[in-house]
Amino acid sequence: MNLGKLKQIAPREKWKHETLGFTPWLAQHIDELNSALGLELEVENTEVAVGPYSADVLAKDIGTNKYVVIENQLEKTNHDHLGKSITYASVLDASTVIWIATDFTEEHQKALDWLNDHTTDEISFYGVQLELWQIEDSMPALRFNVISKPNQAVRQAAKIKAEELSERKKLQLDFWTKFAVKLKATNKIPSVQTPKPYYWFDVTLGKSHIHLSNTFNTNTGIVSVRVYIQNQISETMYPFLESKKEEIETKIGQTLQWNPNNADRDKVITLLHTTDLNDKKKIDEAVNWLVEYTIKFRDVFSKIVKQKI
To answer: FRET pair for 235, CA 20 to 30 Å: which of 2, 105, 224, 267?
Structure first.
């Protein structure tokens, strides 16, 4: 068997200039970065003015609806780009900084780790190493290596310890932890949020202002998969989805509740399931039910939502 030789090539062989080459390419191929980070980002703009400087890419995290600053560097990391990234984030009110470079010094990797460990869970820093590889004379293949990211497990543990959870909150956290683990194991959802002791658990649909906001009611034992349409787009998106009602319900295989609270400006489309909070087996069945229909809802609604974009 003849095998080709795998070799690494310098990114500047493909992109001669960061601003004119790599940044526009990244804006058009943001899904490559999303896949590496487990996020869902939408590009808002490139070369965004921040005083006398400009942020390479300004994006929005669909899951949190917060801004993300992406700083590109087709060379080894330096203090200048670290400082600029933090400055851009502060001026643009971004919750996430993503620093892409071809090589990270040990000091800069430690700096990102330190920032993640000493900031709240509302602020995140990612270090991403950019590599290009090819076999013999093949087309180059890109690889993003994530060398620094928030340690969500540590952050969550610290937050839980500080809050001293009530029994109700512990029940919510346990339920959503089981749900998140099983949902992530299916590899059907690109971005699964960190479980928190809340009433709801959000899953993105690939567009801003509409998402799945699943619920777990610890008073009634009712679990739901819920499409949540925020008021910014509800006047156009909800009628569009309602016009597809028969198609949607056929594909999901269930009759759904369509906007039960007509007075609300935010609109919801819901499927309910009742469990027994005193029966561990029933709760586990509810988790499995929620995983199954979360995947069905996301598959069906995300495709239809894209028709409206």
So the answer is: 224
Both tokens assigned to 223: 């679990």
What residues contact 49, with CB distance under 8 A and at least 6 apart?
A: none
Rounded CA-CA distance 110/141 in Å is 28
Q: What is the pLDDT of residue 154?
A: 60
The CA-based angle 161-163-165, given to 5 degrees, is 90
Nearest alpha-carbon partner for 94 in 126, 61, 63: 61
Whole-number Å distance between alpha carbons of 270 and 215:
10
Provide the 10 A C-beta neighbour count for residue 229: 25
Enumerate residues 6+ apart whose C-beta is below 8 A from 204. Answer: 40, 62, 63, 190, 191, 211, 212
Q: What's the CA gap between 306 and 188, in Å, rounded? A: 18
Other CB atoms within 10 A of residue 284 CB: 14
Looking at residue 248, its amino acid is I
Burial class (CB in 10 A: 0-12, 13-18, 19+), 50: middle
The structure tokens listed for 268 are 């919801």
Quote the pLDDT of residue 30. 93
Task: Report DSSP state, residue 255.
Answer: P
Q: What is the pLDDT of residue 259?
A: 86
How confident is the model at residue 161, as a pLDDT? Answer: 56
Sign of torsion over alpha carbons 89, 31, 49, 110: positive
Residues of the chain with pLDDT under 50: none
Tell me the chain's radius of gyration from C-alpha atoms.
Answer: 22
pLDDT score, position 91:
94
pLDDT at position 262 is: 75
Residue written as tokens 């490559």?
32
